[in-house]
Structure formats: structure tokens, C-alpha cells
Amino acid sequence: MYMKNINNFFLTLFIPVLLNSICGCNKYDTLQPLNGFTVTTSKLTYRVGDSVIFNVSGNPNEIVFFSGEPGKQYANINRDSAAGGINKLIFQSSMQQGTLPNNDSLFLLVSKNLSTYDSTGIANATWTDITSRNTHWPTTLATSYTTSDSIDISDFNAADSINIAFRFKGKQYTAAAQRKWEIQSLVLTNNLTDGTKYQLFSAPYAGTANNSAFAYTGWVAANLITDTSVHGINAWNLGGYGFSSASQLMNSNYISITGAYPIVFNPGTGVNNNPHDAWAITRKVSLKTIRPDAGITIKNVVDAAFAGVTYVFKPGLYLTYVYKYTVPGTYTATFIGQNSNEDKASAVQQQIQITVTP
Fold this sequence. Notes:
Shape: elongated
Number of strands: 20
Largest sheet: 6 strands, antiparallel
Number of helices: 3
Helix content: under 10%
Structural class: mainly beta
Number of domains: 2
């Protein structure tokens, strides 16, 4: 009898382990129900700066919080474009060579129908000259940079996409060197009426700070002069269409390609140089582009919780989450509780309308 009980005991341990090893099952393979996931607050009206305490019941694997503020609204998680924004362009330029005054010049242009980045495509495109919209061009020769106006180009946002270009036109002078220009730190934003601002040349889902993003702007050098004997007919340190600083070390003029600002239009220091018509063109961009709104992950399946979460050991209450609103208004606070495994996911939404007064 004793040996029989021992055998039964080991069979009880062995069979579940054997079944798990055969089917690959574990406790995460079964999708747990989200019964009991609720969120409540003690009141619905608060003052600016008050601690709003959200009481969370239930214990999902993941919890994401959307405060309802601009850029943090659950209703906008799939929104990637918005009309009606104000589009602002800012850059820095430096004029470093040339006799003052002379007729060398740098032009700022926008096209809504550029089809290719070669001389034919550029010549056939319709370009709008917006050079005069910037009143802060350099007026002296210096290696320092002049920051442009915050240039409004919202009149182009009805187009599906646009290209922005800097065009350098250098004439042939017998007694003077042509102008040398440098461009850096181009930033293009879409500014919505709710106060949110989106950088249009930046990494996907990056922050909205005013940092320049050379790599994501997709700069391309091109020219409208077909005389290949002319040295430096492109924007001298940019790649041509189809290759970039990431894939080539030199451009077609054997000039090293930059992987960062500044962009240099450098015709050389000699006099009587051949004419230049050099272009630096951005990739296509939609001025209506925005990033989907995002929430704060306050718990996931790996980490128990993040900042702002307080664990409370009370019957029926899993945790509390504390949040402070800084602007008066009415906000729809949304909590998404989710359980998931490798095959599927189940989510429950809890929303509370919060009023914040001054």
C-alpha cells in the first residue's frame, strides 16, 4: 500500500509536466478573462494641479492610460493626418564668400508636383519662389549662422505632398569668386489649433522638440547644368538621387558626402568659374502629417508598474494611479486593460470624464 501511494504521487507530478512538454503549454497560453477591470475616482471635478486619484480594480497584464489632453487622446490613436494646421519652416543660413554686392543668390522654393529628382524632373516641375518670405538672410560674410523667420507655408497644405528646395545660382565672374552658402538645421512643423506640434522631418514617433533631423529630411542634390566638366555642379556635399551619405562616400564630383549639417554650396575660391545651378531638395512630405496620439504604459507584462502607480493592499482594489492636469478643461481619461498571449489579445476600456477648473 505504501509503495502504491508513492507511485501515485509521482504520477500526479509527472503527467502534467509530460503534457506541458508535449504540447508546449504554460500558464500564459490561456488568455485570462478581464472580469473585474474597472476604474473609479472619488469625484469628477478638480482644480489645476490637484492629484486625481484613479482607483483601479482587477489585475490585467497591461494597463495604458490616456489623459485626454492634446496628443494623449484615445480617440486619436489611429489618426495620422489633420487638415487646418499651421505649417512653419525654420532653418539657418551662412553666407561665407563673395563680393558684396554681387548677383550670386540663394533661392527658397516649394513644388507640389516634382516627379523625379533629375534635371528633367526639376525643369518640368512648378516651383513657387518663397525666398522673400524670409526676411532674415545673412547680410554680411561670416561663418556664423543666421536663423530664418518662422516661415508660414500653410498655403501649400492642400497638396498631397510637397518638396522644399534651396537653389544656388552662380554666375561667371572674371574678377570675383562666386558666393559660398551653408544651410543647416531645417525644421518643418505642423501646428494644430489644440496646441500640439508635430515635426514633419523626424524619426517616426519621435518627440516634438525643435531638433534638426538631417537623415530623415532625405536631402538630395541635383543640377540643371548638364556640362559635366563643371566642377561642383551639385550641392557639393550631398548625394544625388538614388544614393545618399549612408551608401556612398563621394558624390559624382568626387566630393565627400556629408551625413549631417551643414549643406554646402561651395563654388571654389577662384575667379572666372563656370556658372552653377545647384539644388538641394528635401524628400516629399505631406504638410497634414501628424503622429497618432499615445498613452502612458503604467503596467506591462514584464514590469509590474511605472512612475505614478501606488500599490494599495485593499480587498477588490489592485492599485491607484495619480495624475495632475495643468490646464483647465474637460478631459476624457481612458484606461485600457489588456491580457494577451502569443496568439491573441483581449482588452477592456474604462473612461471617466474629468473637469479641471482654474
